[in-house]
Design brief:
Order of helices and strands: H
Number of domains: 1
Strand content: under 5%
Distance between the termini: 48 Å
Structural class: mainly alpha
Helix content: over 70%
Radius of gyration: 16 Å
Low-confidence stretches: none
Mean pLDDT: 88
Number of helices: 1
Length: 40
């Protein structure tokens, strides 16, 4: 039971931290990223 919970929690932590860092990156460089996507 505990090992199953841990195996679920670990990927969720990775996903959440990835989403948070992506959001931070977007908040600081969102306009540049959109401009780059528009160009390419």
């Amino acid at each position: 039971m505990l090992s199953k919970g841990q195996s679920l929690i670990r990927p969720m932590i990775v996903i959440v931290s990835a989403v948070m860092s992506a959001k931070l990156l977007y908040d600081s460089h969102g306009a540049e990223i959109l401009q780059w996507l528009g160009i390419h």
